[in-house]
């Protein structure tokens, strides 16, 4: 099964491979090869083809979805239009034929989880020579930097100047719980002290009907316990000529204190700090949605050694071709192909199939799925960091970092909105006193109020937080949405096509009908069927046995019970041999008739599984 199928985009589950041999280049044309990490589906190929086909100078496109590569034949002096077009539709393209000149480094930045910080970093790194492209993922707190060789130290120094500690992420490591973003516990004491002292400042101000030295002390304690980080961020932003909301809030609070409005300054800073904590908690909750996927893969597996013995080995250390044994009830650690044994595997975490799938030699198994019954051995076909589950996790991370059209608009709007607000506030503070003879303190106060009221906190934060919260809520309910773009486009849905009934059902089969055939008595037939089903651990058999128990059907003793993998079961009751199984078993026993075939087809058309 392809990754595309596991993500449920509705495409074919067969791998699609375009010819990898490049077509002859036309005279005067050149070729550029890109690796596009989030292109593995014909839907995305069609999107890219429609976007690039209209570009002047693009002569041809060759796709390889299995390798996630795109070869562009062109007659362009610069590939900037191609790269901008790919970026506009959310494709993460990296030149493969310029690997010697450029490289991409992934950085983990613990304190980066807000669009304001992204803007600050983008502006700073935009001035660093050799930095070609920046790709932010605020949910994972990572930044991918495409840069020239030897430029990485300059990037790290620039980030440090902004107060961010960045660590280089080893992209070869498998996604694991330890590699997931660490949720920093909230220190509630500073915020609590700030809230109490700000409230006390308001109360003392009211009791004294004005300022008092205790009001000043309480307000200062509130401002610097709850707003010290805001002041630090605001100062760094001002040093880098970036008027973000931290800078606006710092200016507003400082101005309020200078003109003697101490309680208001304290309360504004406390409310801003509280809003930041709420935002961080919302993002952490959304960020943790991926933890459920990370926990699906066991850390160890039983691997056959060179001398034929079996030993527990870490999943990351297992190589392709290794022979792994899986016991009943265990999770499968790596993708592979069954070599020996038979079993039923619960693939719901990967494929969404509600019923266990029978596995026999030659069948594929996936990391993170559960071996329901039986034991088998399989050959590893993919490393831990390239398993189907690992690719799904990577797709979820990329989805969390993608931007919806509304979010891109808000980011662009806020970039101009904040300086305009600051300029209007300066005009409000200066123009009336200078040209109308108004009181300075009154209009400075109004200008500061304008800064607080017009601060783009809600504007900047609301859209990304709502999107990631929506993605997280869907993930917690087993739905993977491929980014904010598709979440936003969901409002246009009129019809929804599902590939299997298990996608919208409880995934637990239940008996709906009991039909007798021929001259058999209904009570005897049901008692025999329930007796055989009660000895099996297959979900369909359990449904038959449960229905019989509910209806009070008496069970009979079964001798020489035997499971027939992929077919059903057999056993002796009162000296006679009976079979209970599927259509395939009935055909092998030579008991299928045209009338029975017609009856089975009618039941299956209604979406029912027939057991005979």
Automatic annotation (TrEMBL):
Entry keyword annotation includes Chloroplast:
no
Q: State where the protein is found.
A: Cell membrane; Membrane
Query: Into which family does the record put it?
Result: Belongs to the cation transport ATPase (P-type) (TC 3.A.3) family. Type IB subfamily.
Q: Catalytic activity, per the record? A: Zn(2+)(in) + ATP + H2O = Zn(2+)(out) + ADP + phosphate + H(+)
Protein's UniProt keywords contain Ribosomal protein: no
GO cellular component, alphabetical, reads: plasma membrane
Q: What is this protein called?
A: P-type Zn(2+) transporter
Write down a Pfam family by its short name: HMA
Keywords attached to this entry: ATP-binding, Cell membrane, Membrane, Metal-binding, Nucleotide-binding, Transmembrane, Transmembrane helix
Stated membrane topology is: Multi-pass membrane protein
Residue span(s) of domain HMA: 30-94
Transmembrane annotation, as ranges: 213-231, 416-441, 447-474
| UniProt-listed Gene3D superfamilies | 3.30.70.100, Calcium-transporting ATPase, cytoplasmic domain N, Calcium-transporting ATPase, cytoplasmic transduction domain A, HAD superfamily/HAD-like
